[in-house]
Amino acid sequence: MTLPVTSERVISCAVVVPQPPLLVPALVPGAVERTAAVRDATLAAARALAEVSKQWLAVGVGARRATIEPDTQGSFRGFGVDVPVSLSSAPTAAAPRELPLSVLVAGWLREQVGAASVRVELVAEHADVAECVTLGEQLAAAEERALLVLGDGSTRHETAPSGWPDARAEDFDARVRTALAEADHEALLAVDPALAAELQAQGRAAWQVLAGLARTRTGWRGEVLYSDAPFGVAYHVARWVGR
Questions:
Q1: Which of 48, 102, 125, 208 is the most exposed place for a label (fewest CB within 10 A)?
Q2: 154 occurs within a structural domain
């Protein structure tokens, strides 16, 4: 089922995307075709978000709680290629700064689909469920109507390098996939932070911020656009529309 994204009755829209550097073609010049499926799905979700609003709110995971304002600029230089990104289409004199990967990807996606700005709220990687819910409830009152949620699933799937796979990864990400498909915020809140940490599922805290926000409204519907672990890491792309 394809969900509508342009309707007077739509009061909120959120998309969940992964944040691997491989989304940026310039960073994977020898593997652009191999990485196309997840990139195409992520860009499709971002375009749908831009149809709802050109001003985005994003949630990503960082070392600590922080707010990154739209006048910020950065670069993927630390990932091998100097690909500049900006969180706003408006000219700014701010000097580029080192930014977490989630912020860089949010800015890159904004540019690719022509959104005007994105404000990024970082949640601490090890934030507990209650902290994530509180932040989500606070963000529910934000002026922006379009929410971008960034984070990867487990890095320990069977396609990971030898010695790294964990048999629990498949079930873990299958549960996340189902929760995203059904817009089941309670199922996302039930994700165990300790297990997520063991499985290196860095997106856990960001997903639970989304769940905290979703609890403040009713009528959410979900759609999964992509869910796979082609390089040992689970990437989920989903869209939630609320009424």
A1: 125
A2: yes
Name the 3-class secondary structure at 227: strand
Tens digit of pLDDT for each residue in 86-137? 999 997 777 888 999 999 999 999 999 999 999 999 999 999 999 999 999 9
Tell me whether strands 55-62 and 117-124 are parallel, antiparallel or unpaired.
Answer: parallel
Q: Is the pTM of this model over 0.90?
A: yes
Beta strand pairing status for 235-242 and 117-124? unpaired
Identify whether the C-beta of residue 213 lies closer than 8 Å to the C-beta of residue 140. yes
| Domain-embedded: residue 122 | yes
Asked, for residue 6, whether it belongs to a domain, the answer is: no
The parent domain of residue 238 ranges over: 12-242
CA distances from 37 to 8, 59, 71, 147 (A): 31, 23, 31, 22
Structural domain contains residue 1? no
Residue type, 161: P
**Tokens representing residue 110 in the block:** 């904004």
